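Hi there,

I know you've been waiting on this one. I reran it after we fixed the sequence typo, so this is the corrected version. Both the input and the resulting structure follow.
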Amino acid sequence: MCILIGKYFDNIGWVGVKNRDRNYIPEISFRKRHHDGIEILYFWDDITQYCEGINSQGICVLSASLMVLDDEKEISKRSKKPSVDGVKIKQALTNNNIKQVVYQLIKNQLTGNTLVFDQDNMYLIEGAWRKLKQRSNFRFQVEKIDPKDTVVRTNHGVWLPWAGYQRGSNLSQSASRISSESRRLCAQRVTDRARDPEDVINGLTQNFTDDPQLNPLRTTKNRKKMRTTSQILMIPKERTMYVRPVQSHMHFNFWDLNRPEQRTWVEILSNRVLYLNLKDQDPTNDPPYAPQLSHDTQNTT
């Protein structure tokens, strides 16, 4: 379960932000690939081998699941096979034209709410399986977003209202749908008020309600529940991916990733804002999500 935001700023163009929710502690690394003169930087989950990223043409892909059963599986061991969705995104980012990236993701039937954007353009793809995972059952809608508009998506369908979490007799599904709707409303408020990309990503750490599962940044002490494990901000104009390891183990080699000749860049954001949002609480109390801030950011030089 995740939050996706797309917003256009006059001075830098389109940016994309994601709160990534998992029910396990991810091990994150960054990988680079070169394909026909295109450099691609991937945010890589070493446990599931899922990836998304940005290429040297400034084309970015961020995605949030609408296949709820797949998204809710508790990860108990490291995957030996690449994530199917990750492979589709990885292949699409080898293109140097944003329309080709969009076309390939649709052709390969990527499910979920997916943002494809560069500095000047943003596309939203909403895709899901109508019934069984058979090629003829794939449904999607894609739209180019006007710079005067914003995009905020969570884990229920908007253009495909039957996709994602649904209200009904299944109490777990209904609770997840309520969470999805609440997080979207909170994220929309953050997006509307944001004056720059930092306002967006930091705003998604705020508490809007006493129920931690209904906030944009989800916290829990229950190992099996969804919690926000990282935040991602991509700015195409800068060819840069910013990552905040809210609750992730992160491994990277700073010098290899950010050499002067590189055409894509990584910046690691501090978790300080998570604590600053608690300044109005009793300073003698431990932050309620302090146990979830365990991350191991290693600079292996």
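Quick highlight: Residues 146 and 297 are 38 Å apart (CA to CA).

Best,
R. S.
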